[in-house]
Specification:
370 residues, seven-stranded antiparallel beta sheet, mainly beta, 58% strand
Length: 370
């Protein structure tokens, strides 16, 4: 089973990526649960059916006051001044039609400290095709707060038919509590291609691009796009896909006319229905025989020298960008100008892109500010 656990600070809303579908969301609209009072016996040990979940009261509190509760208030689950042990069980969730899911639970603290004694805990978990057991779990223990929602991401449920989703907790009656505002299960879409690798390598005066897919679903074609600044891309060629296959496929394309300087490449994958997806960007620092621009040194703390070839044929514009695409410096350059010195003492440490635009030619180089 493939799973990663990701923590998010503070409350947030659930944002679905393209193709995600909600297959379960706890419905807290029915008011009810367990409450106590000082004038009547404690609520009996038992369960409350909320509609598509059940909460259980497992152990009576150590004290019995009017604010002791574990219940739905119509919008969320609330445990206020609860002393005892209780839990949540979602109705059995049908996952027979999906292969990958994400489980998200969001909660927050009421009071100064939820779990401040050694015996206290809060535990999320789930189980596939079995009895209610903590197949995988995330536990909040003594000295921690519930202000850290939890997400079990990219769970491989291939071949499973049902999901059991649970949480349980044990708290002393210490004047605090918590709220659970959302419990959700979403199915994750099958990616159109699973990319094993994508590489770009200089070969003589060209750039060879190679990639391999581990699997493909409705893959119509893949286009190679190139950029000289890492932001604006243009297609330079395309290769037909293999449709749908679980057999690894190898692909290649040659860029016969790369630009001088840094060339950025990415794959644009297109399904038969026109949907697209993009790979990560790779780059090749290509300095051809006719390169007009050189940056020295490539690592600097005070100054860099921008050298232009002696045969630089026309006026141009020199620009410096950070990796977020922000223009930090630009200057007009006259034809035949041999060198320019650039003061980088006030630049933040990091990598920068130098771009020279002269007529229809665009060249890029980069340097690193130490």
């Amino acid at each position: 089973m493939k799973k990663t656990t990701t923590l998010f600070l503070g409350l947030c809303c659930t944002v679905l990526s393209w193709g995600q579908t909600t297959i379960y969301q706890a419905d807290f609209s029915t008011v009810g649960g367990f409450m106590h009072s000082t004038t009547s016996p404690p609520a009996p040990i038992g369960t409350f059916d909320g509609g598509n979940y059940t909460i259980g009261y497992l152990m009576p509190p150590s004290t019995d006051v009017t604010t002791n509760s574990f219940r739905s208030d119509g919008t969320k689950l609330v445990s206020a001044d609860f002393g005892g042990e209780a839990g949540f069980v979602a109705d059995l969730i049908d996952i027979s039609a999906v292969s990958n899911i994400t489980i998200t639970g969001i909660g927050s603290t009421l009071g100064a400290n939820d779990f401040n004694d050694s015996g206290e805990f809060f535990r999320w978990g789930y189980s596939l095709d079995g009895a209610l057991a903590f197949t995988d779990e995330f536990t909040i223990t003594s000295g921690t707060s519930l202000n850290t929602p939890v997400s079990f991401e990219n769970i491989d449920v291939s071949g499973a038919t049902s999901l059991a989703l649970v949480f349980d907790f044990n708290m002393d009656d210490d004047g605090t509590g918590f709220e659970i505002t959302s419990i959700e299960v979403t199915s994750n879409p099958a990616m159109p291609i699973e990319l094993a690798h994508f590489q770009a390598k200089r070969v003589d005066q060209s750039v060879a691009l190679t990639w391999q897919t581990s699997s493909e679903i409705d893959n119509h074609y893949m286009a190679i796009e190139r950029s000289q600044d890492g932001r604006e891309f243009q297609e330079i060629g395309r290769v037909q896909g293999a449709g749908t296959t679980n057999i690894p496929q190898n692909y290649s394309l040659i860029d016969q006319s790369p630009a001088n300087g840094i060339n950025y490449y990415r794959l644009r994958q297109v399904d038969f229905d026109g949907k697209t997806d993009y790979s990560e960007v790779v780059s090749v620092d290509f300095k051809g025989a006719n390169s007009e621009l050189t940056v020295r040194p490539t690592e600097a703390s005070t100054w860099v020298t921008l050298e232009l070839s002696a045969g630089f044929p026309e006026n141009g514009n020199l620009q410096v960008f950070d990796l977020n695409g922000r223009l930090l410096y630009q200057q007009e350059v006259a034809a035949g100008a041999p060198t320019m010195d650039l003061d980088v003492r006030n630049f933040a440490a990091g990598q920068y892109v130098v771009r020279l635009i002269a007529g229809s030619r665009v060249e890029t180089q980069r340097f690193f500010k130490k």
